[in-house]
Amino acid sequence: MQPISTHLLVIGGGPGGYVAAIRAGQLGIKTIVVEAAQLGGTCLNIGCIPSKALIHAAEEFDKAQHYASGSAIGISASAPSIDLNRTVAWKDGIVKRLTGGVGALLKKNDVQVINGFARILDGKTVEVKQADGELVRIRCEHLLLAAGSEAVELPFMPYGGMVVSSTEALSPETIPQQLVVVGAGYIGLELGTAYRKLGAEVTVVEAADRLLPAYDAELTKPVGAAIKRLGIDLRLGTSVLGLNAGGDGVRVREANGEETLLSCDRVLVAVGRRPRTGGWGLESLQLDMNGRAVKIDDQCRTSMRNVWAIGDLAGEPMLAHRAMAQGEMVADIISGKRRHFMPNAMPAVCFTDPEVVVVGMSPDEADKAGLDVISANFPFAANGRAMTIESTDGFVRVVARRDNHLILGWQAVGRGVSELSAAFGQSIELGATLEDVAGTIHAHPTLGEAVQEAALRALGHALHI
Ligand code: FAD
Ligand code: NAD
Description:
Layout: E1 4-11, H1 15-26, E2 31-35, H2 41-46, H3 48-68, H4 84-108, E3 112-122, E4 125-130, E5 135-145, E6 149-151, E7 163-164, H5 166-169, E8 178-182, H6 186-197, E9 201-205, H7 217-229, E10 233-235, E11 239-243, E12 249-253, E13 259-263, E14 266-269, E15 273-275, E16 289-290, E17 293-294, E18 307-309, H8 320-334, E19 348-350, E20 355-360, H9 363-368, E21 373-379, H10 384-388, E22 395-401, E23 407-414, H11 421-429, H12 434-438, H13 449-458
Parallel strand pairs: 1-2, 1-5, 2-3, 5-18, 7-14, 8-9, 8-14, 9-10
Antiparallel strand pairs: 3-4, 4-5, 6-15, 11-12, 12-13, 16-17, 19-20, 20-23, 21-22, 22-23
Helix pairs in contact: 1-8, 3-4, 3-6
This protein binds flavin-adenine dinucleotide and nicotinamide-adenine-dinucleotide.
């Protein structure tokens, strides 16, 4: 077998890998990407994009149903229905457009894509089994590992039959009558809410004593209230024991120690994801690990020279925008630029209804870091735009240093607040102070005015509260 030679070989064509390859191509670096499934990885095919498409469809259907029972704004509708096959086909169409776009961008930038499964032979050699079974060997100067992550399975309730992961949940043939969701994290709450809006009875079982335990309690309170209003049954402090013998329910141990049966015809297990480290020869490199993730430094270098790792494979936070930013940086470094991955602001958004955004430090995190901070909230109940879109739940919160008013963090919960993450991130990365944001004219009427008002309030002179 005659090996192919390249300067950069990327394993994995997800957001980390494909962005690294596009940037490398732009910089004139000879690059090959090996992808075993579809370009775009988890994010475009079975993650961010399809989940947001399904969430949108569920929201629209829920709105139509809301109008069918009359509404304060005078719209009425009769007996809305949803054709799930068309919904899934519409979602698949978006995925296809985006993954096709990634292929076109790679081609435009002279990146060679090899469809096949990569197995590492050593730090400079990879063997790829292509779809037709043919093997190809690739030699490289730099090896970038971007193999992503996979859903964690509960050993006593493996995937299969009525037990599904987010992947199957994103392409449903039917909506279950009774859905049990295990895990009240990102996936459990985003998809649990969507399924409820699509008509399923939903019970969410969470081992911790509150939902979205990664976020602070004040921030997730409006989410908890909203899912209750929607009719989702949330069981906190509850552990799953397994399917019942009849296969039509899940046995759980409730917070009070009692064992109960939750009847259901589908179970979505969403208890986290773990780096995909097994089955492709990674262990042969004997890299230093950080728990289950590949250990990297602030340039995404692994413990082996010229072997790099990015994205979910390199651990938390497992977010697409982090993977992309790391990928772009690694390509820059390989081209000779001096870069380090030290973001001040790494936004995280949970696309529940209402949405939750965090960027930078929360008041608790600032306290723990020994910083003396001021923080202030501005509620959407006092924002005109929020009233006009019938969504006054939630607030924007700012955290800033007391001494010089440098902004350290933003948090928000409310409908549509994901779009505020850009302003939040920019203000932190640009080193804005409370005065900078308070003194910026914000368009009226917008949800963004709550950002300015939060800064004004932290300075002691909010105008509209
Ligand atoms: P991946 O996207 O997992 O890509 C890795 C690629 O490598 C895959 O295509 C895989 O086929 C390929 N691969 C693996 N091993 C090999 C091999 N040996 N040979 C060849 N190819 C290989 N993040 C957000 O920021 N926002 C969201 O809204 C969001 N929503 C999500 C919703 C869901 C349901 C899920 C599951 C995830 C979501 N995420 C979200 C997380 C996001 O998808 C990941 O953080 C992101 O995809 C990680 O990118 P990556 O490039 O590291 O890996
Ligand atoms: P997660 O870590 O967000 O939530 C998992 C939840 O399951 C936690 O609340 C945990 O306490 C709970 N849990 C764990 N074991 C349990 C058990 N045995 N019984 C009951 N509850 C249990 O994980 P996820 O929702 O599976 O999502 C995986 C990852 O995908 C996320 O961490 C995130 O990185 C990424 N993601 C991001 C987004 C987004 O950015 N909007 C959306 C979806 C997924």
